[in-house]
Design goal:
Residues 14-225 form the Glucosamine/galactosamine-6-phosphate isomerase domain. One of its GO terms (molecular function) is glucosamine-6-phosphate deaminase activity. The protein is of the alpha/beta class. The chain has a domain at 8-129 and 137-182: Rossmann fold, CATH 3.40.50. Helices cover 35% and strands 17% of the residues. It is built from eight helices and ten strands. The chain has a seven-stranded parallel β-sheet, sandwiched between helices. The protein has a three-stranded antiparallel β-sheet with strand order 4-8-7. The mean pLDDT is 97. The structure holds 2-amino-2-deoxy-6-O-phosphono-alpha-D-glucopyranose (GLP).
Length: 242
């Protein structure tokens, strides 16, 4: 696991965008695992610019997102589908058949989750899995205590995650308490993993992760210690306690 402090928020975001761009540009049929959250906005902004400036052929690109809120309408302004369309899919003209987010309705939940993992297994491995991190060390929506062999499934969000996510919702009552998340085992099946952490609020969890010698299920991001190709990209604010 390599920890890389790139100084500014912009340089860290651009590094990640460039790595993803290179994969898409030079490996025509790229499979990407995508993440949402405030952290990723500048990554997608730069990635879109690079793909457009270089006239990259994206017709064979296919993506799988990490998570989606349970039972939130796909067109809700806070759904991860809306986020992805706004920041990436619509901007580069991806077709519906090219992007996948976990099915988040209440019908056939287990079957749909198994099908999501199976699709990743059959098409995969994902060339790059992009990750953010929660203040409690969650990746995707795999909260502390999640077994490292977990697959895509319905999860209950913790109080701290619900509180952190509430900043995006107008009314606290509207903040979803459940989500469908790609499992840790599914994440670890990717060829390469890039975790981006930006800002002061991620400094404590990053210092903790940096000090860990062995994985611990209470810190989901520590599962990455078992993977051989992981970069943890930070800005100065996140790296300040390291
Ligand atoms: C949510 C997402 C995570 C993301 C985290 C951090 O919990 N499910 O995938 O990493 O938020 O989000 P932000 O980048 O807004 O801090």
């Amino acid at each position: 696991m390599r920890f890389i402090n790139l100084g500014s928020r912009q340089d860290a975001s651009h590094y990640v965008a460039i790595e993803m761009f290179k994969e898409i540009h030079y490996n025509k049929c790229t499979l990407l695992g995508l993440a949402t959250g405030g952290t990723m906005k500048d990554v997608y902004l730069k990635l879109v610019e690079l793909l457009q400036v270089n006239h990259t052929d994206i017709s064979c690109l296919e993506t799988f997102n990490l998570d989606e809120y349970f039972m939130l309408d796909k067109n809700d302004p806070n759904s991860y589908m809306t986020y992805m369309k706004q920041h990436l899919f619509d901007k580069i003209g991806m077709k519906e058949s090219q992007f996948h987010l976990p099915d988040n309705d209440e019908i056939d939940v287990e079957e749909d989750n198994e099908a999501y993992d199976q699709a990743i297994r059959e098409k995969g491995p994902l060339h790059i899995q992009l990750l953010g991190i929660g203040e409690n060390g969650h990746i995707g929506f795999n909260e502390p205590g999640t077994p490292f062999n977990s697959k895509t499934r319905l999860v209950d969000l913790t109080e701290t995650t619900i509180a952190a996510n509430s900043r995006y919702f107008e009314d606290e009552e509207e903040v979803p308490t459940k989500a469908i998340s790609m499992g840790i085992d599914t994440i670890l099946s990717s060829e390469r993993i890039i975790l981006l952490a930006l800002g002061e609020k991620k400094a404590e969890i990053m210092a903790k992760l940096y000090s860990m010698k062995a994985p611990d299920e209470l810190i989901p991001a520590s599962s990455l210690l078992t993977h051989k190709n992981v970069e943890i990209v930070m800005d100065n604010a996140t790296a300040r306690l390291i």
